[in-house]
């Protein structure tokens, strides 16, 4: 998916001077894009929004502000998903306030409910997405809800139906 995104970006006259990740979800995709686009400048900001599976705070908050200058730079802003779009919008606004020249956005997934449509995205979805780098965290959150065994099994079935590998779920659950 990121290879296709990199190709789309390279086909445009826009060339990023810097790739900016929204941590945590955008870290891995951003690092891959650094390599694919051969853009050596990489930075991040951390935004906190989700409290639990599909549960957000009222507004996202900046946990770690950008520590590098973006003045006059073309910035490629990367996150894993534009779900509500609030984190992406907050990050973009902050970079605009810091005088970035042009900001383009890229995500792996785009949800139609999002308040911002990324300039580049891989797939459209209206479902909750579990990324490979958050599988154990997701299972841990389900377990921490102290739900009954039957309800827990129903939650696992929903995850598997949504594309979560059953073997991975079984292995991670055994290790917890």
Count up the helices: 6
Residue share in helix: 25-40%
Which class of secondary structure composition applies to the elements? alpha/beta
Radius of gyration computed on alpha carbons: 17 Å
How many distinct beta strands? Answer: 6
Name of the CATH first level of the largest domain: Alpha Beta
Question: How many discrete structural domains?
Answer: 2
Distance linking N and C termini: 31 Å
Beta strand %:
25-35%
Q: Secondary-structure element sequence?
A: HEHEEEHEEHHH
How confident is the prediction overall: mean pLDDT? Answer: 84
**CATH structural architecture of the largest domain:** 3-Layer(aba) Sandwich
Q: Low-confidence runs (pLDDT<50, min 5 residues)? A: none
The largest β sheet comes out as: 6 strands, mixed
| Biggest sheet: strand arrangement | 3-2-1-4-5-6
> What is the molecular shape?
elongated
CATH topology of the largest domain: Rossmann fold
